[in-house]
Amino acid sequence: MAAANPSVGARRAERPCLPLDVLVARPDVDACRLAGGLDHFGLYVGQKRLAVLGRRLKAAGVKVVGRRGRWSVYIKDPNGYTVELYAD
């Protein structure tokens, strides 16, 4: 059996975000308004993790831009994408 890689946890600590540069848009064009586009994407995180993430986001000063019931929050990522974190 292969030994676990001890650097995996260190890499996660250094790079906690997933960059999602999926397209380059002209700043003068609102692609979502004109062509439909991506409104948001959702990440299932589970109830326990959602509670932990909520505290971490608040401590980091991340603004919640929307909610859907008790188990879904919407935030903006650094690129301006709306991200839904949810637990059904």
Characterize this entry briefly:
The chain is α+β, with helices and mostly antiparallel strands.
What structural class results from the helix and strand content? alpha+beta
State the end-to-end CA separation: 37 Å
Shape from CA axes?
globular
Largest sheet, strands/sense/barrel: 4 strands, mixed
Task: Give the second-level CATH assignment, the architecture.
Answer: Roll
Name the helix and strand elements from N-terminus to C-terminus, one letter apiece.
HHEHEEE
Task: Tell me the strand percentage band.
Answer: 15-25%
What is the spatial order of strands in the main beta sheet? Answer: 1-4-3-2
Query: Roughly how much helix do the residues carry, as a percent range?
Result: 25-40%
Please write the CATH class name. Answer: Alpha Beta
Say what the CATH topology is: 2,3-Dihydroxybiphenyl 1,2-Dioxygenase, domain 1
> What is the CATH H-level superfamily?
2,3-Dihydroxybiphenyl 1,2-Dioxygenase, domain 1
Helical run tally = 3
Compute the CA-based radius of gyration: 16 Å
Low-pLDDT parts are 1-16
Tally the beta strands: 4
Overall number of domains = 1
User: Overall mean pLDDT score?
Assistant: 74
Structure description:
- This protein has 88 residues and is an alpha+beta fold.
- It has a single domain (23-86), classed as 2,3-Dihydroxybiphenyl 1,2-Dioxygenase, domain 1 (Roll), CATH 3.10.180.10.
- The chain is built from three helices and four strands.
- The chain has a four-stranded mixed sheet, with no helix packed on it.
